[in-house]
Amino acid sequence: MTVTTVDRGEHRVSREVRVAVPHRRAVPRLARQPSSRQHRRVYRFLRTPFSRRAWRELAFVWASLPPAVFGVVVVYGMFAPIVPPSWAIVVWLARWMGSVYRDLARRLLHIDIAPPAPGPQPDELGPMGWVIAQVRDGAGWRAAGYVLLRLPYAIVMVCVGAGLWLCAVVGIADPLLQWLDRRFFPSGPAHFGVVIGQTTLPSWLVVPMGLVLLFAAPWVVHGLVRLDIYLMGWLLGRRSLRERVRDLERSRALAVDDAAARLRRIERDLHDGAQARLVALAMDLTMMRDRLRDEAPDLTATRELVDAAHTHAKAAIGELRNLARGIHPPVLDRGLSEALQTLAARSPVPVVVTVDLPRRPAPAIETIAYFCASELVTNVARHSGARQATVDVVERDGALQLRVSDDGVGGAGAATNSGTGLSGLADRVGTVDGSLSVRSPVGGPTVVTVRLPWYAQGW
Amino acid sequence: MRIVIAEDAAILRDGMTALLTMRGHEVVAVGDADALFAQVERERPDVAVVDIRMPPSFTDEGLRAALRLRKEFPDLGVLLFSQYVELRYAAELLDGLSDRVGYLLKERVADIDDFVEALDRVASGGTALDPEVVTQVLGASRRREALNRLTPREREVLALMAEGRSNAAIGASLVITERAVEKHVTNIFTKLDLPPSDADHRRVLAVLRYLAP
């Protein structure tokens, strides 16, 4: 599900919060029969406390408590003195904390919150420039607000959410507690059990209360978590039009650089490849002509020259063909599916290609998707040691999603920032406002997901 | 002739070495500017053929090497060798001195007779500019009116002159007598109001200066 706001004017302001599709496995097939709709509802209600989502959300509530404490103590406690340099550190740290929270949400809740655009670049060098840039960073200040707000909210979440769960468990376990009480403390006041005033409530009252709480707790936690997600989207996501403009400026710069780099590469390839080969061919022909001018030409040497000329001509043709394919693979005219099948056929690692798109994307998008797939499949063959790879292209949340996964050694994520092919791909995808994410734990498997809009001009 | 070739692409380097060796020249080939200087120092060749693009940055290392060679070894002929014609490079290379210097497109090696002749010319104190350089200079020139006063044949002679060819070579190329060439040259110099010059390479400079945009 994508939460997308589109305003009808010139600008499209988009995506604050993106929610991954929940696991369908939650509902077993048996319950899907149309006749048992009522059943299904009851069943779903009954299993709520035991659903994955409930446990994930509870885990999130607990897991976000330490960063909340850490955030306020470190971010504010250590750098609170009211002078601009310390503000800068607060803002900078808060931005980092924001990424911690977004990461938690992604891992535990499967909810992607698009990070805000990078902050403004320092106008001047040196520490002062950095301080000014941080202080001007609106997204950083919003993150700082979130970090501050998050501690009380985390306490509320833990007390209310986790507290309800605890009450539910205690309520249901009441008979056991009472039994324990009688077993170990036969006389004297009650040690375990639910007590109001001086009266220990009877189990027949407490157990139903516990059950009610058991079914209420997940919903309360759910509500609290939703509110937090909303807060995150608001304070930790990307928001202002100015940020959007900065994004666009960045992606335009990327597009321009990318185009220039590509032209330069083509020129270099021509220069070092086909052009040089053709000159070599011409030289061979010249030497041949020289030899044949002799009264008694040395035929062996001449034959060697003919062979060399032939080799050079063939190499030039091959290089021109590769170059042309690099500029625009002709098979792409027949659609992404066919192009990717061709790509898979050329790969030394077996690749299974699945393309399931309701309609054809814009040509520019197809081209980018194809080159991403090409680069990623090449990476699989070159670095991963995988025995099998898959390329899936589907529509997801109104965008084109290309996913290349392999069963190789992993560890590709660390390379994203080190000027490798992956960061180049991310830049290229960025030119059309797409995104690229890499999940590649050491030991594998590696999954690279590329999301592209249907049209190059925006979502 | 003793020739040092600096060219990073192995196929061209080997091809040229084979071609020139076949023509009876002594050839040493290197792949970058540092090796070029070392070889020139050691071999003291008659002429160095220098590719413009060489490692490490593949931009204009060759040009800078050529300029340094011209300064440090005034007796050495330097032929700059390139896939493209870049007028700015030609201008920098000539920079007031048109002797023992050349600038040719790589594809000219295919016409080995012309190429060797150009090398000879550069080695023996002359100039060898690629016809493409001359075409571009003529195309960019502001002296359009003056040029229009020349007859087509005179323009041909002017172009060959700008390449650095001698009257004899121009005559051979256009299949006319040397005497006829001399007459054309005199006419050209009169029409363009240029001071006559004796050496072929000085005449190149005069023409280029005149045409310079």
How does this model look, in words?
- The complex is a heterodimer of chains A (459) and B (213).
- Chain A has 459 residues and is α+β, with helices and mostly antiparallel strands.
- Chain A has three domains: 2-239, no CATH class; 249-327; 334-452, 2-Layer Sandwich (Heat Shock Protein 90), CATH 3.30.565.10.
- In chain A, 60% of the residues lie in helices and 10% in strands.
- In chain A, strand 9 (435-439) and strand 10 form a beta hairpin.
- Chain B has 213 residues and is of the alpha/beta class.
- The chains are: A alpha+beta (459), B alpha/beta (213).
- Chain A binds chain B through residues 268, 271-272, 275-280, 282-287, 290, 312, and chain B through 9, 11-12, 15-16, 18-19, 22-23, 53, 58, 83, 106-107, 109-112.
Question: What would the keywords be for this entry?
Answer:
heterodimer, A: 459 residues, alpha+beta, Heat Shock Protein 90, five-stranded mixed sheet, three-stranded antiparallel sheet, 13 helices, 10 strands, B: 213 residues, alpha/beta, Rossmann fold, Arc Repressor Mutant, subunit A, 2 domains, six-stranded parallel sheet, 11 helices, 14% strand, globular
Global geometry of chain B = globular
Largest sheet of chain A: 5 strands, mixed
Number of domains of chain B: 2
**Could you tell me the strand content of chain B as a percent range?**
5-15%
Oligomer kind: heterodimer
CATH topology of the largest domain in chain B: Rossmann fold
Estimated radius of gyration of chain A:
31 Å
User: What is the overall pLDDT average of chain B?
Assistant: 89
State the CATH superfamily name of the largest domain in chain B: Response regulator
Task: Give the distance, in angstroms, between the N- and C-terminal Cα atoms of chain B.
Answer: 36 Å
Summed up, the domain count of chain A is 3
Structural class of chain B: alpha/beta
Overall body shape of chain A? elongated
> Count of DSSP helices of chain B?
11
